[in-house]
Amino acid sequence: MDADGGDGRVAGGGDGQAASGGSVTTGPESERSTTHSADVGAETNGSRRSADDTDVASGSAPLDDHADVAVAVEGLSKQFGTGSDAITVVDSVSFEIEPGSVVGLLGPNGAGKTTLIKSILGMVLPDEGSVRICGVDVADRPRAAYGHVDAMLEGARNDYWRLTVRENLRYFATIGGIDPDSVADRHERLLERLELADKVDVAVRNLSRGMKQKVSLASTLAGDADVIFLDEPTLGLDVESSRTLQRELRRLAEDRGLTVILSSHDMDVVEAVCDRVLIMSGGRIVADDSVDALLGRGERHGVRIASGDFDADLLADLRAAFDVTGVERFERRPGARVDVTTDSDGLYALMARLEKQGVRIDRLTAVDPDLEDVFVDLTSDRKEETEDQRWEERR
Description:
Layout: E1 9-11, E2 25-26, E3 33-34, E4 43-44, E5 47-48, E6 71-80, E7 87-97, E8 102-106, H1 113-121, E9 128-133, E10 136-137, H2 142-146, E11 149-152, H3 165-175, H4 184-193, H5 209-221, E12 227-231, H6 239-256, E13 259-263, H7 267-273, E14 276-281, E15 284-290, H8 291-295, E16 301-307, H9 312-321, E17 323-329, E18 336-342, H10 344-356, E19 363-367, H11 371-394
Parallel strand pairs: 8-13, 8-14, 11-12, 12-13
Antiparallel strand pairs: 1-11, 2-3, 4-5, 6-7, 6-9, 9-10, 14-15, 16-18, 16-19, 17-18
């Protein structure tokens, strides 16, 4: 088969955990490097069965006492380099994810998100800690553990470009240990929902960037995995396609009990689709809570003040004393709307200053923080702490 591919797709059922001594397969005439393996044992009515009774894949894997947790990470750490040049990228990270939940993983560049995901997937060998997937320890039984998993990683070709859309879905189902004919109806429904139905016989290389991204998502979602990892899944998608993906992820989580770990810089997507959010900074988890709880935990408040008394001097005075985040001047009359972000004490000080200046407030509105505001507050604080610690260590 003459096929172009990339290195961004990881499918369950294979024994290709690079960090555990497994094989890493490479697509024919391509740069594709994944943890897929076609050696997943016999197939029976679309289910997975390993040839080794002591290391079975997800279709018949015996689950232990931790099976009610989809992903369990405990004390995971990874350091690159040695001596004074050593950098701790993932620092004693622990969390558990329940089945059927959609969890967002956020963090600024360099926070350790990608290394954490690759450590969980077996693409990077952690220095310390353990990972269990659907109750199976990845170090003890990597083949059985990763039989539950599929993933789409950002920044790489994720499908075989010379294959058609339909051929890609069938191919990835096959190497995941599933008879593609047994899930053909599921494939058709998914292609319809992702608006790929009229492209099923088109080679992926002839599609637009957004369409290629949809094919990668379809290949990931069309399998029989219990847990999927999606890294920047909305990259290259238009607004409507992004909303379609969000609806499909929620449907799969609610109807199939699919567990989704979603890493993205698109805060609107995370806020809309995730039950829970993990925020990383400096290699550690600095927040782990529901979206609603995170939005309600901020100490800073936003207010929008409309007044006909705001002139250039008053606005300059406010900017000097407070965090003025926006000014919108009225078009047909004097004055402006002013957005200010402050804490409780600052809010009292703001009202006192406006009263002292003789400002008559026409309208006062609370501006609720969004997930991006919370994210910036949490990670900027952590960045300052990390820089202070590194300075102390060098003294």
